[in-house]
Design a protein that fits this description.
Blueprint lengths: L1 E3 L2 E7 L5 H16 L5 H10 L2 H10 L2 E7 L2 E8 L7 E4 L8 H16 L5 E6 L4 H6 L3 E2 L4 E3 L2 E9 L5 H4 L3 E2 L1
Antiparallel strand pairs: 1-2, 1-10, 2-3, 3-4, 4-5, 6-9, 7-9, 8-9
Helix pairs in contact: 1-3
The chain binds coenzyme A (COA).
Coenzyme A binds next to helix 1, strand 5, helix 4 and helix 5.
Length: about 170
C-alpha cells in the first residue's frame, strides 16, 4: 500500500479477470490523452487490440503486469510483454498527475529487480503527451519522434536504478 497525497493506493499483479475494467480504463485514457497524436486508422486499431478479450491474452502472457487501485477501483494499468519492454502504462483521467504512474513504475522496477535480475535496461515507445513523464522517471530518447503505422511515437530507454528507488523517489509505503 502507498500513500499519495493522503490517498491510499495499492498496486497488485493484474489478472485475466481484470481485463474488462482494465480495457475501459485504457480506452478512456487513450481517447483523452494519446489519440489526438495518432491517425484515425491507428486509433481504431488500438481500440480493437485493447478490448477486454484481447487484454485477457496480453495479461496472461505478460512478463509483468500490474493494476493500481484506489477504493477497489482500478486507476492504473502497466504491462510489460517482455522484461525489457514497457508496452502499456495508462492512468485514469481522474487520477492524472497524482503520482500513480510514478508509483507504478517504482513498483515495476522492484519486481524486475527480484524476478529478472539480469535485466538492466527497459525500452518503450512514448506518445508525445507522455514524454515529459517518462523523462521525469529516468527515460531518455533514443530516436526522433516518428510516425509508425499512424502512431506518433519516440523510442525511449531507461537504465534500471540500482539504489533504493523508493527512498530516492520520496514515496511512502503505508
Ligand atoms: C503518462 C502517464 C502514464 C503519467 O502518469 P501520471 O500518474 O499522470 O504521472 P505522475 O503523476 O506519476 O507524474 C510524475 C511526474 O511526471 C511528470 N509529468 C507527468 N505528466 C506530465 C505532463 N502531462 N506534463 C509534464 N510533466 C508530466 C511530472 O514531473 C510529474 O511530477 P509532478 O506532477 O510532481 O510535477 C499518464 O498521464 C497517462 O496515463 N496518460 C495517458 C496514456 C498514455 O499516454 N500513456 C503512455 C503511452 S506511451
Amino acid at each position: 500500500m502507498y500513500l499519495l497525497n493522503r490517498m491510499e493506493l495499492s498496486i497488485q499483479t493484474a489478472k485475466s479477470d481484470d481485463a474488462e475494467e482494465v480495457s475501459n480504463l485504457v480506452l478512456r485514457s487513450f481517447a483523452e490523452f494519446a489519440s489526438p497524436h495518432w491517425e484515425p486508422e491507428a486509433c481504431q486499431w488500438f481500440q480493437k487490440m485493447n478490448c477486454a478479450s484481447e487484454l485477457v491474452g496480453k495479461i496472461h502472457n505478460a512478463a509483468h503486469s500490474s493494476i493500481a487501485l484506489v477504493n477497489n477501483a482500478i486507476v492504473g494499468f502497466l504491462l510489460m510483454p517482455k522484461p525489457t519492454l514497457l508496452g502499456m502504462l495508462f492512468i485514469h483521467p481522474n487520477e492524472i498527475r497524482n503520482g500513480v504512474g510514478n508509483a507504478m513504475w517504482i513498483h515495476t522496477c522492484k519486481a524486475l529487480r527480484s524476478e529478472f535480475p539480469t535485466v538492466s535496461t527497459v525500452e518503450l515507445n512514448a506518445t508525445p503527451n507522455a514524454i515529459s513523464f517518462y523523462t521525469d522517471i529516468g527515460f531518455i530518447p533514443v530516436s526522433d519522434m516518428c510516425l509508425q503505422n499512424g502512431c506518433r511515437v519516440m523510442r525511449m530507454s531507461c537504465r534500471l536504478p540500482v539504489k533504493d528507488i523508493e527512498a530516492e523517489c520520496n514515496l511512502t509505503s503505508a
